[in-house]
Amino acid sequence: MGGLVSRVVVFEFDAATWEVLTPLMEAGELPNLSALKAEGASGLLRSIIPRWSPALWTTIYSGKVRSKHGVEGFDATSESVRVKRLWDIAEQAGLKCGVFGTPVCWPPTDKCAFMIPDVLVDRGSETVPPEYSRLQDMYWARRHSMLEYARDLYDLWRIGVRTRHLSRMIWERLLLAARRSGTVEKYWRQRLWWTAIHSDVFLRLYHQHQPDLATFDYQATDTIQHRYWHYYDPERFGIPLVKAEPYRDVLPASYREADRIVGEIRKAAGPDATLVVLSDHGGAPAEGLGQFIEARLEKWVATLGIGRAATPIRLVGEYCLEFHDPSYLAETQRTLEQVHMKESGQRLFRGFAQRDGHLMLYPIRDHIEGNTVVVPGHGEHPFEELFHRLDAEHSGVHHSDGMFIVAGPPIRAGVELEPGSILDVTPNLLVILGLSVAKDMDGRVWEPMFKPSFLAQSPIRFIETYETAQCEEKGVL
Ligand SMILES: [Zn+2]
Description:
This protein has about 475 residues and is of the alpha/beta class.
């Protein structure tokens, strides 16, 4: 190495917000993130609308707006992406890349040293290297016997999950079963088990491959803030303190877990690497308690007039139509994509996935405003006829103000920067990696973030575009 280029690890801190971070840092509960902030640059990272993670992460890693990159909902695959993302550019320049859990990476590419797609939607379990596909299968599988569960534990151990995390999982599972705990108690623990599993596997892959650019996706803050914000801030929601008390620490716990992983990643990456911690959007308390909605599939089949072509299948938290006559499948998805609330225009399905004649439906998890559902070509219907509001409460929402912290050899210490945009992430990461910024990207470089000595040695360079077949000449490597 010529010393001009810094290796980069990106910690994707989904829905992280300074509103929660700052008090926890001041209380000394996030030592690794606090140290990173003191040694680097930080600030607000503004998101863009619509705040759907697949579109946002594609913007983050391409530096381009949605109309250019082409990714919208949760059913997007890597084939939906019309532009080059950071790892495509870095890999072309001869850098070694590893991607873990970043949205819109399925099916994975073997141009990366490792690529483990996200588990936001249940689809193929392909991974690079292939031996990690068992990890993906396990995420969605239902366990029917202790033997199956024991096999999972063994397989997790074989792919690098540490025994202390496995024993914590076993212990908590036994405790939950003994107490016959409900969803509120189980949900956050399950999210943090999976986080521990994923971080262990990521660290193993990181040690094995030593990538120049690596990403690690941390979802638990987002999934947890959606369901536990009213316990964290019960006064705002008018929740009795005694009801809130057992779960008051759940949201902070998801931040402490992120802090633990950031500490381990920093140790693994070493002092020469630049560590970037950033959110795709922030989080904030909702105006009131909302609810998850469930699709009444039998009613949908009747409403759409596809009773002869499709059978509804309901799994826990998932909705699926099995088509005997696949010629109806695409048309049905097109109609459902347009389903919205008459009063607010709000769409009611956040994504779709197709597999072997099955159409999976993912209803939104937002507050529903209004009472009338418009099904284009099939009339207007009362909300309660087609959907059912579930008991799970929903108190945290996405917010445009997210966060970033960047620390490493090229970065000035202890600076708070002006608010940036998620569009700026890739241009800045290219500078840190020693690569040119493309003029057709929509973000900008944050010059005040960089040490003048770094910019003197490694001036910001531009090229027209990365979207042509021609690769950039390799710089200092
Ligand atoms: Zn979310």
